[in-house]
Amino acid sequence: xxxxxxTMSLGSFDLCRATADVDxxxxxxxxxxxxxxxxxxxxxxxxxxxxxxxxxxxxxxxxLIDDRTSVTLEYTHQYSEVNLIGSNYLFSKRGYADxxxxxxxxxxxxxxxxMLDRSILAIFDHKLNExxxxxxxxxxxxxxxxxxxxxxAGFDPDNDSLLQRTMSSWDVLGTSxxxxxxxxxxxxxxxxxxxxxxxxxxxxxxxxxxxxxYSMLGLPTFNVYKPVYGEGPILEIDRxxxxxxxxxxxxxxxxxxxxxxxxxxLDDKLxxxxxxxxxxxxxxxxxSGDFKRSKFTPRVGLSYSIGSNTAVYAxxxxxxxxxxxTDEAGRVFDPVTGTNLELGVKRDWLNGRWNSALTIYxxxxxxxxxxxxxxxxxxxxxxxxxxxQTTRGVExxxxxxxxxxxxxxxxYAFTEAKxxxxxxxxxxxxxxxxxxxxxxxxxxxxxLDRGKLAGFGVSLGYQYQAKRSPWFxxxxxxxxxxxxxxxxxxx
Length: 491
Description:
The protein is an all-beta fold.
């Protein structure tokens, strides 16, 4: 028996979107199952000349070999075309929100940027017995982009209305191969319970980027307050050679082995998690070739249930991730390392109708890349330098039922993210770029559960952020962003 759903959406700015979702059985014995999702969209924008047209097709097959074993195969095909990447950026020497919302630096005569994303995923599940299960999965991703990006070269020093626009190629070819095989199960040794997880995790990624073709866009005198479009030249991108020949190559891979055991004591009231991972990184690019680094990263967690309504926990773990690119001497950067310390308490109230959680944490990260203004890059911008960051924070979550049918979900996060290691000592102690010190969310939802309108619901919520620092440079001065408030509703 097959079942399905078809939807159609219409909205502002010429939005038209249709979806279909169908699933069912392909054989009478019910062992071969299928599902297919299809989506198509045409969409304009509040910005001039902007659009986002796309479609996707996602078929899935699942074969039940027996009651313990299954194989799943999924293919994803996504295509989209948009206006010049970066057309949503606006620039002003006068301040934030200085230009109208429908303003754009792009042109209607620039060819669309196209993106084709294809992937295939295979999953093998086998239940060894009542306590143990083996899972193996592999994926291949292929991403192809042809287009261009837009940025600003700068304002006329004598006139803050005149901006020089620039346009550069932005073609991408990316391939990723990933695989995992892991075993999880439960055992009992005396009065101690065990929940095991062990496995192998592998990834291999290769990307080619061509942003090397560059030119001014239009005439040198583009007035951002009285824009005139359709004048001056646009970049004609040369694609006579493949992107593998003309692009910059980035490559990284890793292999990880991990083992975890969650031990339960006192009828599982006290739980101790002991885990470790050995990761080998392999990174390279056209500048420096390949290198390998390995590191063992532990994870230790302890939690205890105080009665049936309260649990406390503590966690210590580390991370180890690759860095990209090279410094001015062509040397690759050291991998990013991190250490996380976390304490928390969770409690249920009023027979589970209310739940609360409080978390306190500290994260230390080393070898985080930041632009080094002392070292300009001939290709544009600056070379990177390794820095350190320390983030401390408190998070509070509360959710529950005010009256029957009326639920509330509230949370607050205080985040103190600071640069703690930098060549420029005046930067140390400043807020990390892109972070917000205060974030508060609240959401109310009311739903009828009886009568002719049963199932009808109304929701209203907001988000508030304060002490925001802009991406990607922040020096602790008045350049910080204003406070942010957003309200959402749904019926």
